[in-house]
């Protein structure tokens, strides 16, 4: 058997043996490979190719970005108007039902307003946000561009915004620390801006009513008294006493904004209808209602809900329509 297989194996291995014995004229043979004279040729070639690829893709994606930005600029220039939105009212995502917002609210991920009166730094963020928000009203007070609006004016220029006087806030000012160090915190309640929207006030009311209260009866008891300061404060008290700076003689400077004063006996705040419509006027003053909680229960988280009341405002607390909810904790 071995003799029978031996010729066939030799025949198979014969070409391989000849190949190993062959000596090529160019100096290349399987038994002694010659190393290239320059060992860096491969690396130089690969680096050059990689650099060309990077240069190509950089130029390609740069051109794509330029084309995309050019398209966006053309779209904004010819399709989107600067002065008014293309879609308004129920044709856009905002709809025609405005919501409420509060200032300050430094933590966007939480609705808790935590005030520690024993340490200034704990509520300094609230004071800073309130000051930053109200500074817009202070630095945009040029009288020529504002309309002096009032209920008595039957026709006003809608292209000129109404002037909002921050002095209507009473004790809700920076000098008094917005009441935080006295455990009497102030908030600014504002209505979200919707282009062209006009309020339809309730009967015997000249604007949008803003009312804040506890989310439950227990929260109402814990929340205590609430004061509302709005543009109606301009007409009260009558400025018949020059020496007292326009304050009624029946009230002193100390108790002017106390529960003895009718300003703190209101059941609701009021955003006058003459501030509307919002037409994207330059330096528009968004009307505010300052809400001050006089005696909130300390060391207890109180749930508070504020609503806007008008005929064309739908209030839905779970969906936050025409309302805003938050928690107040004073330590």
How is this structure best described in words?
With 331 residues, this protein is of the alpha+beta class. It folds into 2 domains: 38-80; 98-330, Immunoglobulin-like (Sandwich), CATH 2.60.40. It has 4 helices and 9 strands. The chain has helices spanning 2-21, 41-78, 120-139, 217-223; strands at residues 100-103, 112-115, 186-191, 207-214, 226-229, 269-272, 288-293, 302-309, 323-330. The strands form 2 sheets. The chain has a 5-stranded mixed beta sheet with strand order 2-9-8-4-6. A 4-stranded antiparallel beta sheet has the order 1-3-7-5. The model is unreliable at 237-260 (pLDDT under 50).
CATH class of the largest domain: Mainly Beta
Quaternary structure classification: single chain
Low-confidence stretches: 237-260
The count of strands amounts to 9
Looking at the overall shape, the CATH architecture of the largest domain is: Sandwich
Question: What structural class do helix, strand and pairing data support?
Answer: alpha+beta
Helix amount, in percent? 25-40%
Distance between the termini: 104 Å
CATH superfamily of the largest domain: Na, k-atpase alpha subunit
CATH topology (fold) name of the largest domain: Immunoglobulin-like
Shape: elongated
Subcellular location: Membrane
Family: Belongs to the X(+)/potassium ATPases subunit beta family.
Pfam family, one: Na_K-ATPase
GO molecular function: ATPase activator activity
């Amino acid at each position: 058997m071995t003799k029978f297989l031996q010729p066939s194996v030799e025949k198979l291995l014969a070409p391989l043996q000849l190949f190993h014995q062959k000596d090529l004229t160019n100096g290349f043979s399987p038994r002694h490979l010659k190393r290239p004279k320059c060992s860096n040729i491969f690396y130089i070639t690969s680096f050059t190719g990689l650099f060309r690829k990077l240069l190509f893709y950089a130029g390609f994606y740069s051109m794509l970005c330029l084309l995309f930005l050019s398209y966006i600029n053309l779209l904004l220039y010819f399709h989107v108007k600067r002065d008014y939105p293309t879609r308004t009212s129920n044709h856009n995502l905002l709809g025609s039902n405005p919501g409420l917002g509060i200032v300050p609210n430094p933590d966007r991920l939480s609705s808790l307003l935590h005030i520690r009166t024993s340490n200034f730094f704990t509520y300094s963020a609230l004071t800073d946000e309130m000051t930053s928000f109200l500074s817009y009203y202070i630095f945009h007070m040029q009288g020529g561009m504002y309309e002096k609006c009032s209920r008595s004016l039957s026709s006003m220029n809608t292209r000129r915004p109404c002037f909002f006087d921050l002095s209507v806030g009473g004790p809700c000012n920076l000098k008094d620390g917005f009441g935080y160090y006295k455990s009497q915190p102030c908030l600014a309640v504002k209505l979200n801006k919707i282009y062209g929207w006009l309020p339809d006030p309730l009967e015997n009311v000249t604007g949008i009513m803003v009312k804040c209260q506890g989310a439950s009866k227990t929260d109402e008891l814990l929340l205590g008294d609430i004061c509302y300061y709005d543009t109606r404060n301009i007409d009260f008290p009558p400025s018949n006493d020059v020496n007292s700076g326009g304050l009624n003689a029946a009230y002193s400077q100390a108790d002017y904004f106390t529960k003895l004063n009718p300003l703190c006996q209101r059941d609701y705040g009021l955003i006058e209808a003459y501030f509307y419509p919002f037409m994207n006027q330059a330096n528009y003053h968004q009307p505010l209602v300052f809400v001050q909680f006089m005696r909130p229960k300390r060391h207890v988280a109180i749930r508070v809900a504020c609503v806007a009341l008008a005929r064309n405002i739908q209030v839905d607390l779970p969906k936050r329509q025409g309302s805003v909810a938050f928690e107040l904790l004073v330590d």
